[in-house]
Amino acid sequence: MTxxxxxxxxxxxxxxxKGQFLDLHRHLPSTAFVLLLLIVLAAFAGAFLYAGVYNIGxxxxxxxxxxxTLSKFRERAIAHHARNIVVPADFNxxxxxxxxxxxxTEMCTGxxxxxGVEKTEMSQGLYPPAPELARAVGRSPAEMFWIxxxxxxxxxxxxxGKTHSDELIWDMVAFARALPKMSxxxxxxxxxxxxxxxxEMMKEMPGMSGMSGMAKGEVTKPKPTxxxxxxxxxxxxx
Length: 238
Known about the structure:
With 238 residues, the protein is mostly helical. The chain is built from 9 helices and no strands. The N and C termini lie far apart (108 Å).
């Protein structure tokens, strides 16, 4: 058998004998260099995080790189966890959509708005901004169900599954997916014709007894204790 011969090039470039693989050790950095580089990068990242110089205020957007990275991570995570969720056969039932209207108006309009609904103080202060569901959905029913049930970390999206049954969450999703097809008048009519209000539907949910009215922004004031004092008098120990 003839021994492999070196390939000669007129420019004196590096050549590899015929029949042999490229010698990677000659072209890649050493293991020690790679380890040192990783240690330096880890130390820099640790110092950056510990210093707290990154602005996490909701009024200061992420850089394009950070926002793109977090967005891709979020989208892939949602798609992965929602992959085995089965949509109910009656998902598009008008009764389910009507029930969802009563839930949506109390739980979702403040952030996600609705047809003809102006931006609220809360929706304008959120970052990342909550999607306006009346404009476009852009997600599958299964993905929307997972988001509503489990929420999203480091955002204003709560995990409604802690207080709401799967059936009620599917009702909300069904109504939310119907929003882009509604006019402002149809949206208001759907809210007005909802078969039950949020508080009524929540009476049977575990841990929700005595919570009536809280969804509408009512605040329970603490009961006064002790006795009052005349105006201008100094308080004293009882």
